[in-house]
Each structure stands twice: as structure tokens, then as C-alpha cells.
Amino acid sequence: MLSKSKRRRLTFLALLVSCLIILIIVNEPPRQDKTTWIPLLKPFNMSLKIKPTNEETSQDSNYTEPKRIWVIIAVLTPPDSSMVKFCQDTRWRVIIIGDDVYRFLWGKTRCIFHGRRDQRGLNFDSVKYIGTIENLPPRKNVAFLYAISQGADIICDMDKADVNVLQNIDLDRKWYMLLKNISVFNPLDHFAYTSSNYKSFTYEIVEDVALTIQTVMPYVNYEKSLENNVTFQFFDHEAPPIVVSSGTLLQFVPISRIYHKTSFWSAVSFSKSSSVDAMCHSQWQQRLIWEIGGTYIVHPSQHQGYPQNELKDKPLAPDCSQYLISWTCPQNLRLTNCMEELSKDVKTFTNISLDVLLSWIKDLHHLNYVVPSRSNIGSGASRYTIAESSRVQLTYSPKVLHSQTLMDKKRDFLESICEDSSIYTAKSDRYKRRVVDDVLLLVVFNLPFYKYVQWIHNMYSLKYSTMAYCGDSKELFLTATEHLNYSLTFIEEDVSAGFYIYQCVSAAIKIGYNVSGILMLSDDVLLNTWKTDELPKDRPWLHQVYTLHRDQSHNWYNWRQPWGQKAFKSVWQELTDLSKNSTAVKNSFGNFERRLQVISKSETGLCFGFEDIVYLPQRIFNEFVFFGDLFAKHKVFLEIALATLLVGLVENEELVMLPGSYLWDNDRTNYERFFNVSHIFMHPFKLGVESKKLAGLEFLCHTYIPYL
Hints:
This protein is α/β, with parallel strands linked by helices. It has four domains: 23-48 and 66-158, no CATH class; 172-401, no CATH class; 402-534 and 659-707, no CATH class; 542-657, no CATH class. Helix content is 35%, strand content 14%. It contains 24 helices and 25 strands. The longest helix is centred in the first third of the chain and has 24 residues, at 4-27. The radius of gyration is 30 Å and the shape is elongated. The termini are far apart. InterPro entries: STL-like (IPR005049). Residues 1-27 form the signal peptide. Pfam families: STELLO (PF03385). Keywords: Signal.
């Protein structure tokens, strides 16, 4: 018989062994199917090179292998359903910087979990800072180095709150609004609602932007916190992204950044004890990007606005932006040497920050990462020098946060033009008033007659909060609207008396508004805004479609002109040639041609129609730009181009035909007989002419405006 003391000892040992077994099981990575298993961490080899691209080449000269995207997220909690779903997305691999306590739970997801113990086991010089300084920055550096070692082409340093934004960002986007001639700019002025009616900025639409760093508008306003006057400001979620290049510093600290391979060297994180440190470190990175002629892009946030900044501020240090703008790196130094020199010169960098940087550079060297050569020596100028003939200029005005209600705005408008504004209420009760934020209303001026833009804006902005105007002359537009108590967005584009107004649509798409679609109308279209809610936003709208044959003559006047059959055959030949060298173009053009054949019942069919009002859903934006720019290049007339483009880009059954009235000859002077409140539009209605007539004002005040 065992004594009681021996039994107690054996029981204790048994419990101890059981606990050890449970601990081992809990910390062991879960076994998954071999086809989906993701290793916790691969053993690091100091001679490891970045993985080569797939050597299999396509016969398609324009084919590019999909980029290998890695996402790094710091999450100190267990995985929730949204993160599990995000990790399952096959577009990217996800590294979770987390707490070792949750290793088992994260191991059940498709994420790669990086605990402290895992990272300390990697053979990077940077791991020595884990646990010795602020926890997160050194752990992010190690996660970045690991992603680089695995052959990443793009690395996204994302805040958990921004992962949904990442899913909507086009990482291959070609067109951006380039901010110029401003040395220091707070992007909040672009992305937030403004209380000023007079705020506007000048941009140029640039193509084939070499992406360097893309960021998301942060939800902490560091600049305001530096002023010790934090206020909540609301974001305009439809605002387009912007890009800056050499010569402009952004006065903000992004929380989420997307690094393309040429910018991996700049991704090093430092500890930040104050908002001053955060701002200077952000601009340190931006300034160094100038040295390679790189770009810094800001995308809109999905957050509501700015909350209170949480960082503790020390006494305000001198603004480092002015120093960075004037700073130059000696011509004989390499980029990594410039990084060291600038770190020593910026006073907010500590000795430990410099040590972190040196370890980072050492690790990049061991990974055989090729740091780009300097292309802009000194402060440098913008790398974008666009030929004057191809330059598209844009005056952009942020949305104004109005204190007025819609009814107040409408009453003020009526009182400004109508003798008796009280008559509108009874007629308009049957239609619900709902402001549309997610559609860009694009008003195109066939000729530079901008005098009555105030009337157009007052009428349509009651319904559409996102508006832009387009025409031949920005100078004339600004002159005609300088008396207004608000600024407007204007795109300067060659419309050639209305012949090529679809170029305005292409330019508006390139701007990058975050909208469901674009509704374009000529300035002489009278739009019944109260009826547009009934139309689907995911399908194109147009008024009419007739068919022609590209190899046959026709008695239609415009078909017999240089901008008709001749121009169409020219663009068709270029599309045919392009499709021979590109699988993507071949597929897209094949679908385009097939849809035209279906509607025309002919192998050589195309379309035309009177399209002074059309709507494009977001899903066809990119293809519209591709085909539309080619049509514009060959000077195809708008009534051929727009009808053919919309029919060719979607299946025929998806087209929405708009009810409306086109007036000709004497009918134009008797427009009130043809106006129908159940239609979508009437064309033409010349505001400049009718507003000067008693009958015209009577129609507007008593018949049309009451329904707005």
C-alpha cells in the first residue's frame, strides 16, 4: 500500500504532466489539409533571395503576372468573423502581429500569425528591438522583412479598421488627380466637408502613374491636435483620391499605407511619443520619396471623420516641413545614405531611431532587396511633365456642409427668381425628396456659355450632392462664376461644340470619384430629378438606339461627314489591330463586337442615337475609358460614339431606355406642351433664353421647380 504522502506526490505529478500536455497542444499550430496549410513561419536563411517571378510567359505581350500582395495587421485580440473572412481572400496573404495568448485561435484561420516568440526566432538584426522599445514598430519592421523574404510585390500596412477600404482600392489604377504648385498641403482640406463656400484646388489628371506609396485618409487629425484644438470633421466618402509628387509634402500621418516594391526601403517604423514625432516621421518618408521621383497617393476613408487624437503631446517643436522642403542630400550619396543623413538632421529622431534604421538597412541588404537609385537630385521637380495638348485641368471644390435644409435651399432659390414662391408646396408633396450622394451628376457645356450655371446648380444640387461641370474653357467658367458665394468643380476638356462631349465622361472617370455611376447631361437638358430614383444604378441609361452598318452608306448627315463613317472605320481598324497583340483587348473587343451584332442583327453593325443624357454604372468605367479614348482619338461624333459604347459594353437586356422628349423646329418654342412630369428629361430647354421671358419664368416657377 502506498502512503498518503506518496499518493499525493503521484497525483501532483500526474496533474503536472497533464498540464504540460495541454499547454503543448494549445500552442501547437493546427494541422490542416496539406493543400491549404500555411506554415507558421518558414526557417529564415540569410542567403534567401526574393522569389523569382513565374518563368512561364504568355504569348500576350501585355500580359502581367498578378502581383503578390501581403497584408500586415496588428491585432491584439482574438479573430472575429470579419478578419477570418479577410484572411480567406485569395488576393493576398495576411500576417497578423498578435498576442501569443491567441496563437491557437489565429492558427485556425488562413492568416500567418506572428507572435513575439516567432519573430524573435527570425534571423533579422531588427528583432533585437522587440521588447526593448515601444512594442509595435519593431514588430512591424520584422513582419515587413518577412514578407519581403517571401517575394512580396506589394505590402499593405493596414489598420484593422481600414481593411474594407483595401478591398475597394484599385492597386493598378492608371489615372489620378495630381496636386501641383503647393509645397505643404493637408489632405483633410480635400477629403472633408468644408464650412467655406470658396475653397477650391487646382489639379491635373495624369495617366500611367508610377505607384510608390498609397495611403488611406487617417481618422486621427494630427495637425489639429498639434494646434490643441481638435474638432470633429466629416469625410466626403465620394471624394476622389489624389496624388502628389516631388515638391509637395502632405501635412498628415497615415495609419494605413500600401507599399509598392520600389518603396519597401521606406517602410521602416519608429517609436512615436508625440504628434510632433508622428508628423515629422511621416514627412521624413515623403521627403525621401522625392529622391526617387516617387508618388504619394491618398485614398478616401470610410470612417465618418476625425475623433480626438490619443497621442500625448510634448511642447510644440518647430515645424519640420519647411526644413524638409529646403533639405538636400549630397549628390554623391546613395539613397540609404540619404536616409541616414536626414535622420540625423531631423531633431525628432532619437539615437535609438537611428539604430533601428541602421538595422533595417542591414536586413534589407541581407535579403538582397535592391534599393532604387536616386533620380531626383536635391529637392527635385515633379516627374510629371505633360504635353500641353494632352493636359486635362481640373478645379476641384470640396463639398460644403450646409446648415440649411433642402426645403430652405429650395425656398431661397424660388424667392430669388419667382414673384410668388408659395405655390410650389402642393405640387411637390407626391414625390419624396432624397439626396443622392453616390452618383456624380456631370453637366457638360457644348459651348462656353456659363452665365446660367447658378440656375443649373441651384436646381440639381437639391437632388445630387456630387456635381461637376465640364467644358472648353476653365478661364471663362471661373470668370462667369466668380460672383457666386460658392466654388464649383470644373473639368477643362475639348468638347468641340458638343461633338466630343463623351471626353468629359472619360475625364470624370479618371478623376476617380467613389460613386456608383455618372449621370451626364448637356447643359440644355431639363432633368426631372424627382424621377431618377426609380432607375437602377448598376445598368446604363440612354434614350434611343438606331443602327448603321460600318461598310454601308446612309443618308444621315453626320454619317457622311469626316466624323461619321470614316472616323468609325478608322477606330475599328485600330481596335482590330490591338486585339491581335493582346488577349485582354481581344476578349473585350470580341464581347463589344458581339453585342453590337446582336442588336443590329448584322456582322458590321453599330449604333447611333441622340444621347444628350446618359448614365454609366461604375462597373463599366474602365472599359468606357479604353474604348472612349480611342473613339475620341479618331474624332468619332458623339451620337455615334455614346450609343455604340453603351450598347457594346453591356448585354442588350441590361440597357435602360429613358423616357423623354426631344423637340425639333417649332416644338421648341412650345416646350410647355411637351413637358411631362413622368418623363426623365426634356431637350432642349435653353435657360439663358427662357429665363428672360415672362412665359419661361412662369413655366419654371409654376410647372417645373415645384417638383424639385
